[in-house]
Predict the 3D structure of the following.
Amino acid sequence: MKSIKLGKSNLLSSRIAYGCMRIVGDNNKESRKKGKLAVRTAIEAGFNHFDHADIYANGESEKLFGEVLQEMPGIREKLIITGKCGVIFPDNPKKGDPGRYNLSKEHILKSVDESLKRLKMDYLDLLLLHRPDFLFNAEEIAETFEILKDNSKVLNFGVSNFRTSQVSLLQSFCSMPLVANQIEINIHNVSSLIDGVLDQCQQQKITPLAWCPVGGVAYPAWRNTFSKEDEIRIDNEFEYQAKKYDTEKWIIMLAWLLKHPAEIVPIIGSTNSSRIKAAKHALDLDYSRIDWYRLWEARNGHPVV
């Protein structure tokens, strides 16, 4: 597995990260067994960066991962564990309460403590603010980061789904560099290539982490707006390139993301052992600029020039 340094940190991450959102499945005995096998397979395949959030399976994903680490003594120090906080589902804590974001000092500190308890570990390598709270106070968040850093509960910090202005605002108050911005990037959602997010990542040496990287290829894209005609045109190009590179369509999508100079780190979340191992093949493709633009044109339905 190739590796990459995350932002301005000292974290050396696998070039592709593993997302733990679905590792508990239906949370029955067989699903949990499959999830544990998926995590162990990822580690054996060279993945060292594991992405979590406090809301994934209402904390059960973190609990399961913690169990795996307990079963693999000595492995924790070889891994990068990323956590996220700030999203609160509806009816919490009372029925009728709205879904909302909360990046208050109190909530962040509480969330980190609860995540560490579920994960059975002393610290997170990286904490991301899951969604930009419309009421977030940048100065308060910076102070909260300092507390977590001083208490050795979090070593590095970043954001998720933040706009460029929000990143700049928060960074202006933070003494430590923001390491990553986790955003949706796939064949359907290419907004970060247009709205300046990836430009900012390059300029400020912030690593973009791509969630849902194979949406629209391996599974339907979130909030899909493609017409049937669009989907057929795009799939035809994926078919062409998969044959050309002797691989699968979703591997082409990973290679397309990896080609970008912002050094995007895709996060895969399959619990299928063969697919986890196969993801590394994207790193070996000598993927061309011409094919990158062929897929871009197929996606948009018109020539660049």
User: Anything to note?
Assistant: The mean pLDDT is 97.
